[in-house]
Amino acid sequence: MSTPAELDGLTRERVLWAYGIVLRARYLDDRRFILNRAGKLAFIISPRGHEVAQVAAITALQPGRDRFCLYYRDFAAALACGFTPEELMLSAFARAADPSSGGRQTPGNFGSRRRGIIIGSSAVGTQIPKAAGIGLALKWRAEGALCYVSFGEGATSQGDFHEGLNFAALHHCPVIFLCENNHWAISVPEARQVAGPGVAARAAAYGIPGVAVAGDDFLAVHAAVRAAAERARRGEGPTLIEARVLRLQSHSTDDDQRAYRDPAELEAEAALDPVPRMRAWLLAVGWLTEPDDARFQEEVAREVEAATVAAEAAPEPDPSTLTRHVYADG
Ligand SMILES: Cc1ncc(C[n+]2csc(CCOP(=O)(O)OP(=O)(O)O)c2C)c(N)n1
Fold this sequence. Notes:
Layout: E1 6-7, E2 10-11, H1 12-37, H2 51-59, E3 67-69, H3 75-80, H4 85-92, H5 127-141, E4 147-152, H6 159-170, E5 175-181, E6 184-185, E7 188-189, E8 210-214, H7 218-233, E9 239-244, H8 263-270, H9 274-285, H10 290-313
Helix pairs in contact: 1-2, 1-9, 1-10, 2-7, 4-10, 5-6
């Protein structure tokens, strides 16, 4: 088989960059999980199973120009937007130098003014109407920028989802609504959460395109987000994309999904892990070789280890600043 020069407009260099981000997210997740079990990190939410979809989406956008309202499972998306492994570890250890909140927010509430990432809260779905408002501001400013907002399928049961989509559709706001549908909202399955034919179908009620894609298919997610971005930048308004992914971990480290999920289903899903599938795809198209992959993985493992050591050694927030951002100064 000949090695393609480009796939769907993407160069080998760009896709290998994306694969590197996916690997960083996975290695960070493994490390954070161990640190949690060792009692060093209090609470972790895992992106396991979502990484390929998240990075494929961000690869179709323009960090630095676009705005991002990420949600708590978006570790791979945050890395793709420019967060470093060390910054994410500083947040996990609640250190003063955590760029999102100085160690105050739950890890996973990503914020970075210079990267255009607007910090959210842990209240499910609240980022969605915010993104619609940001989209309206971007439209008025006519910068050609758009706002990307992500959330789980559980969030689509919230009033915030419907208000946000209605507002963005009505005002033709340049917004991409990306639902990472992992079929579970903690212990509530999609069938007991989402009425009707599914998340993407809800777009029809607002007169906007609704697209469902396989979240482990890098090119499919990338193409859907790219088309939505082109539509938004042309001034035609928002798009709702549903990326169907797997939740390969429990909801959080405070949850144990073995208590409510079928063991056979968990085993079947583990075999569909999108990270080795992306690796196999890259090997098959000739963009990755086994030795290059081994070198890549070694580099990422070293980077994550260095990030962990640096973040653990970093100073904690000064107790005298405890009420900063809680009460007005003075
Ligand atoms: C308004 C609100 N209700 C309930 C919760 C508790 N809660 C936190 S995450 C979550 C599940 C959300 O599931 P989903 O939107 O599908 O995203 P996922 O975590 O599966 O990625 C719930 C119910 C919350 N944080 N905020």
